[in-house]
Amino acid sequence: VPGPLDCWLVTRGIKTLALRMTAHCRNAQLIAEFLSQDRRVKQVFYPGLPTDPGHALAEQQMSGFGGMVSFIPSGGEAAARRLVAATKLFALAESLGGVESLIELPAAMTHASTAGSSLEVSPALVRLSVGIEHPDDLIADLDQALSA
Asked: What are the angstrom distances between the C-alpha of 50 and each of 33, 55, 137?
């Protein structure tokens, strides 16, 4: 049961939700487009990309494509670990839904317990929870980290 402070925080936050979601979606779209055109990236998972298998369905069901972007760097797990360690604006964390941009390696973090099962994710998978910072700054950070 939420307490009075929890309720007040929700009431306060809901007032800017549409603005924040617009920024999340815009930034994630720009980042996904950048990553999908970069030779240092093997695969990008984002429903806002026309090449994504779920794109047509997402267009029908969603008013925006969300702030989550996943991708696999061309260099595999080692490249993914270097990239995550080299980012400066993305915080290494498992949390989602804040205004700050986060980065994680799901196979070593949120999905570690699925190793060896049919639910296992690639150890090279990188997941971004894209925040509301300026998209040029986020893209520049990923660009430099991809070269690490």
From this structure: 10, 6, 24
